[in-house]
Design goal:
A hairpin with a 6-residue loop joins strand 14 and strand 15. The two termini are 36 Å apart. By secondary structure, the protein is an alpha/beta fold. Helices cover 33% and strands 25% of the residues. It is globular and about 80 Å long. The mean pLDDT is 95. The protein has an eight-stranded mixed beta sheet with strand order 3-6-2-1-9-11-12-10, with helices on both faces. Strands 14-15-13-16-18-17 form a six-stranded antiparallel beta sheet. It has a two-stranded antiparallel sheet with strand order 4-5. The protein binds aspartic acid and magnesium ion. Magnesium ion binds next to loops. Pfam families: AA_kinase, ACT, ACT_9.
Length: 412
């Protein structure tokens, strides 16, 4: 039997009515002759509530107990979904992560999947079960304790199951109807993409287009799992949503396929550091040890043996970065005249695999920003992405004007 993985996010299982609606979608696929593995999230808002309770009791919580508590949201929806399907006369059974067992490492609250044995579930399919409903987000450690995969982790559960069971496709049902060229709240010209390449999706996901957990896209790319993102609130059709797939499946595409943004960035500059071998290591080592996620980096040319070093990081990590750098200065590991933080910046990025073969994208991006009078503070590029740091107050304007300049409202 061909097999499909269908994942329903929190809003799609937010109450009994919606669980029934989701179950109907599953019924449609079963009727087409598929065996289905359904991955469910917790009801919308439930995980936040559980995390809140843990924090209230124990701010410095034991991560094993955190996992025991927060995994419970998915335990409930898995059972309810199986019951709903049974009421529709579809043979269904629920599985908790440990029952599969979805084996992870011991990094509680951010566990990595190590293995998903398929024999238990396949044996049940062999006995006539048509739908296996699996609680997303959770697994079991080598010590036999419940683990969770990090917030948004049921996307990753879904992709991992699709890879392990060789599913034809992995459908991710959510509250948006696909992946857009940019955030539709910023410009109503944003267009839903029919297809997007894994690599582009990865850039968009990590740049703050919060449709899919970044890890799930990495996994999908590694195992070539075709992912379809679609809404559980709209009528189903075979070409609904956005297909996230290998580049080779996409015939024509725009040079730039998406404009992403990340609002809460900060830019930090170390003024006048000694320019000597090892200085970058001496600066970024302590930052990394302090858990600061450094993104863009620029080192100025030096004058008389001294230089300025600038980097960006999420705005809520500025205090941590300052502490780490001042600590390193006190220990004599680095030496700088001043440390300046600009906490009013945002990052805007143009993403597209077409950039590999087409030049002039950067120039066009910079001209567009110039025409709007927007000053660029930091630039970084990768093979398929150009990012700039600008004043946060111009972020929307930058996204709108770039979306226009690259004509993203029109398909290739
Ligand atoms: N319920 C978990 C969360 O809210 C996992 C998920 O839904 O993906 O993060
Ligand atoms: Mg999610």
């Amino acid at each position: 039997m061909p097999l499909l993985v269908m994942k329903f996010g929190g809003t799609s299982v937010a109450n009994i009515d919606r669980i029934r609606r989701a179950a109907k979608r599953v019924g449609v696929e079963v009727a087409k002759g598929y065996d289905v593995i359904v991955i469910v999230s917790a009801m919308a808002g439930r995980t936040n509530e559980l995390v809140g309770w843990v924090d209230e009791i124990s701010p410095l919580y034991d991560a094993r107990e955190y996992d025991a508590v927060v995994s419970s949201g998915e335990a409930v929806t898995a059972g309810l979904m199986a019951l709903t399907l049974q009421e529709m006369d579809i043979p269904a059974r629920s599985w908790q992560g440990w029952q599969v067992p979805l084996k992870t490492n011991s990094s509680h609250s951010a566990a990595r999947i190590e293995e998903i044995p398929t024999d238990n579930i396949n044996a049940k399919f062999g006995e006539g079960m048509q739908v296996a409903v699996v609680a997303g987000f959770q697994g079991v450690s080598p010590e036999g304790r419940i683990t969770t995969l990090g917030r948004g982790g049921s996307d990753t559960t879904a992709v991992a199951f699709a890879a392990a069971f060789g599913a034809e496709r992995c459908d991710i049902y959510t509250d948006v109807d696909g992946v857009y060229t940019t955030d539709p709240r910023i410009t109503d010209k944003a267009r839903k993409l029919d297809k997007i390449a894994f690599e582009e999706m990865l850039e968009l996901a990590s740049l703050g287009a919060k449709v899919l957990q970044t890890r799930s896209v990495e996994l999908a790319m590694r195992y070539n799992v075709r992912l379809r993102v679609l809404s559980s609130f709209e009528e189903q059709s075979d070409d609904a949503g956005t297909l996230v797939c290998a580049e080779e499946e996409i015939m024509e595409s725009n040079v730039v396929n998406g404009i992403a943004y990340s609002r809460d960035e900060a830019k930090m500059t170390l003024i006048s550091v000694a320019d000597r071998p090892g200085i970058a290591a001496a600066i970024f080592g302590p930052l990394s040890n302090a858990g600061v996620n450094v993104d863009m980096i620029i080192q100025n040319i030096s004058e008389e043996g001294r230089t300025d070093m600038t980097f960006s990081c999420p705005v809520d990590q500025v205090a941590r970065a300052e502490k780490a750098l001042k600590g390193a200065k006190e220990k004599g590991e680095i030496n700088f005249h001043d440390l300046v933080a600009d906490t009013n910046v945002a990052k805007v990025s143009a993403v597209g695999i077409g950039m590999r073969s087409q030049s002039g994208v950067a120039a066009k991006m910079f001209q567009t920003l110039r025409d709007e009078g927007i000053n660029i503070k930091v630039i970084s590029t990768s093979e398929i992405k150009i990012s700039v740091l600008i004043d946060r107050k111009y972020m929307e304007l930058a996204v709108q004007s770039l979306h226009d300049a690259f004509e993203l409202d029109k398909s290739a």
